Amino acid sequence: MRNIKILAIIILLLASFATLTKAQTTSTFVAGMKAPVKIIYAQPQGYFLVSEAGDTAPNNVRVSIVTTAGARLTLLDGLPSGPAAPNNATSGPSAVWLNGDTLYIVIGAGNEVLNGPFPGTEIPNPHPNSPLFSSVLELRFHSTGVPLDNYNYQLLPADHTRLANGETVVLGGKGRPIALLRVAANFPDFTPNPRPDFPANVRASNPFGVVLTANTLYIADASQNMIRTVNLTNGAIGTFFTYPPRPNPVMGPPFIEAVPSGLRLVGNQLLVPLLTGFPFLPQFAEIRSIDLSTGTDSQYIGGLTSAIDVLPLSIFCGFCHEVYTLEFSTSMLMGAPGRLQRFDSPTTPTVIANNLISPTSMALQLPSRDIFVTEIFTGRIIRVTLAP
User: Fold this and answer.
1) What is the DSSP string of 32-88?
2) Alpha-carbon span 47 to 24, nearest angstrom
3) Among candidates 84, 167, 165, 186, which has minimal Cα distance to 128?
4) What is the pLDDT of residues 218-255, one digit of tens each?
5) pLDDT at site 25
6) To 10 degrees, the CA torsion angle through 373, 378, 379, 385?
7) Are 264 and 310 in contact (CB under 8 A)?
8) What does the domain layout of the chain look like in residue ranges?
9) pLDDT digit string (tens) for 144-159?
10) What local confidence, expressed as pLDDT, does residue 11 receive?
11) Which CATH fold would you assign to the domain 19-387?
12) Alpha-carbon gap, residue 384 to 30, rounded angstroms
């Protein structure tokens, strides 16, 4: 009975949330984070989990807990990070997924490759900062009934090697809650990508989004332009879907990369925000939908400029049809701010906020009905308050 009452309250809140979006304000919720990339809201625990790409120091990144009061707490520090080609932007933990007492942490490209001899080329890095780039780590909280904000772990450099060798690292102990960390999947750091002018060219991997359904992880690779799968029963890694380059309709390179920048799970559908590569054409990006049963791919929302995240309210209640989209920038070449929009239908957008600086992901927090957005360049989490 109690669960039914809670569900009724949530449905009522979401119904009002869908109608109270005519006015909104943005404010800084948390500042001083290390390049926050992805944010999720852990509803039962009542706090956020945030992956941070880190600063210039190697392997100096973390997954943080952020309370609803705006306090940041470290959950796990010392994770892999490094300067990623071509611009040496720090790359490390890129996405998280919480499933009961298990947290899956996706690790991005780091410095697994280096810039090659010609613009746009890449070569393998013989000495990357960590053997764990382009991987998924599984953090299982062994001490039951302990809130996550009681955990505060630090990985040591030797732990990276142990994990890469297939060992399970025990964290905590001596009066502290215990957690077990292991590698759930370690993808190839790169694949051959020969060019006429440089046959030794490679293409890095860059896992950048994750969802879990049944016993399968789906991973968006933003460099290989594919959706990978990881079978958690036997560890098998597969390729579920690949996005080929698209013809360029204007002056410039003949093809434009279709880059999956995240994932959402809605029923039996994967929603995939697609960024596009240079020249970053306006209204060329979109949200795609993939049917998990058939593998059929179709457009969900089009006409975007740099899609980086999508949030359908139907995740929370079946009769809520509004969908929120997040764009990294409304003009990549001009360095314009990013944008949060609401779609009441696939063709009817309403701008909710257009002053977001380098937004990368969003989370809805109940019961406040606020949306929280990570800004990777500013190190902030922005609160978007939807008011009547």
Assistant:
1) --S-EEEEEEETTTTEEEEEE---SSTT-EEEEEEETTS-EEEEEEEE--EEETTTT
2) 22
3) 84
4) 999 999 999 999 999 999 999 999 999 999 998 888 99
5) 87
6) -30
7) yes
8) 19-387
9) 666 666 778 999 999 9
10) 31
11) Neuraminidase (2.120.10)
12) 12
